[in-house]
Specification:
The protein has helices at residues 22-36, 70-81, 109-112, 119-135, 144-152, 179-184, 204-211, 229-234, 251-260, 275-282, 295-299, 311-323, 325-339, 344-360, and strands spanning 9-12, 43-48, 62-65, 86-89, 101-104, 138-141, 161-163, 191-195, 220-224, 243-247, 263-266, 287-289, 303-305. The protein is of the alpha/beta class. The protein folds into 2 domains: 9-167 and 343-360, Glycogen Phosphorylase B (Rossmann fold, 3-Layer(aba) Sandwich); 170-339, Rossmann fold, CATH 3.40.50.2000. Strand 11 (263-266), helix 10 and strand 12 (287-289) form a beta-alpha-beta unit. The longest helix is centred in the middle third of the chain and has 17 residues, at 119-135. The termini are close together.
């Protein structure tokens, strides 16, 4: 057990050698923003020795340690690298033996929708979250909604859970690659964008049913990500002819798809934050969302809401956007203004404030 005042901060850098996901994007952007602060705590990133890094160096010292990788490195090597320092974990997981830590829990979905993650993965994540909530210096999370859920589940009291909203201004760094429109046969404002994700709480089957309705026959649904048409078909979802499964796209291609869409659609039954619709709003594209989880909190006036169980409601919302340019422009303008509050600079300054607070309270 660590005693005395910590001498600095170590970031759990396991994400640096992991495949890009939304959670890993948050970890990278917070690390990058820390590296850009003119005055910051003594911060370094611990990574597995000889790991093949999939993210660029974020402007902080990177310390290679241990000869293990993955979960074994995180549980057995990282605690030693963080000895005498505050360990910050951005990706829900933490070494179970570390008490001098802050862990970011992005949502409570392994408790509320465990079917989306599988029995073993959900149980492992719940163990980490409960351990961090009970034993560490505090928890970080990404929305007021997520904080309320964690409190209601008894993970930690409200005063020990600190909200650090995600930023979305990273989308402004990526030069748009508009060639993706021609490659996929798309016309600006004649398609809606969402994720090719089969997790039940993402509820993408609802969009497939909506786009099978006659009112959306002239609009294309573009789904980006790992899941393929055959995966959705095997899961029993309809495959309307106006659905395009784009697979993985580059950052520049995604920026173009977000900027030129009629809307970014998020029918999720719950979200701890919901980066895709907020990224779209930052680029001026309205959102159509389910009124669930943190989505109303983070999309504000830039979104239409639709019942996540009613395909006809999604058909009606998209037809409204397509047929009413003034409505589209109003949502675009108000949404863009609203989400300018979600910057990585604001997020990292709140993070430093929390780090300062918990280290000042060190016994």
């Amino acid at each position: 057990m660590t005693t005395g005042t910590p001498t600095g901060v170590v970031i759990n850098g396991k994400f640096m050698s992991a495949a890009p996901t939304a959670v890993h994007r948050v970890a990278f952007e917070l690390s990058r923003a820390l590296g850009e602060l003119p005055q910051r705590p003594d911060v370094s990133i611990a990574v597995p020795r000889d790991a093949a890094l999939t993210w660029p160096a974020p402007g902080l010292p990177v310390r290679a340690t241990g000869h293990l990788h993955g979960i074994a490195w995180e549980q057995l090597c990282l605690p030693g690298a963080a000895q005498g320092r505050l360990l910050v974990n951005f990706c829900n997981m933490t070494p179970l033996t570390v008490r001098a830590g802050l862990t970011m829990v992005h949502d409570a979905q392994v408790f509320t929708t465990p079917r989306s993650y599988g029995r073993v993965r959900s149980a492992w994540a719940r163990l980490h979250i409960r351990r961090a909530g009970a034993a560490q210096r505090g928890l970080l999370t990404v929305s007021e909604f997520a904080k309320r859920e964690l409190v209601s589940l008894g993970i930690a009291p409200a005063e020990r859970i600190h909200v650090v909203h995600n930023g979305v201004d990273h989308v402004l760094r990526f030069p748009r690659d508009d060639s993706v429109l021609a490659r996929l046969g798309l016309t600006p404002r004649r398609y809606a964008l969402s994720l090719a994700n089969l997790q039940p709480h993402k509820n993408i089957g609802l969009l497939l049913r909506a786009f099978a309705r006659p009112g959306l026959a002239g609009l294309t649904l573009v789904l980006t990500g790992r899941a393929r048409a055959s995966d959705f078909a095997a899961a029993g979802h309809p495959l309307p002819p106006n659905a395009v499964f784009a697979g993985y796209v580059s950052e520049g291609e995604m920026s173009s798809l977000q900027a030129h869409a009629l809307a970014v659609c998020t029918p999720s039954l719950t979200e701890g934050f919901g980066l895709p619709p907020v990224e779209g709003l930052r680029l001026g594209t309205p959102a159509v969302i389910a009124p669930c989880g943190a989505l109303p909190e983070v999309c504000g006036p830039g979104a239409l809401t639709a019942d996540p169980h009613d395909p006809a409601a999604w058909e009606a919302a998209l037809v409204r956007l397509q047929s009413d340019p003034a409505l589209w422009q109003g949502l675009s303008d108000e949404g863009r203004i609203f989400v300018t509050r979600f910057t990585w600079d604001a997020a990292v300054r709140k993070l430093v404030e929390v780090i300062t607070q918990v280290t000042a309270q060190w016994p």
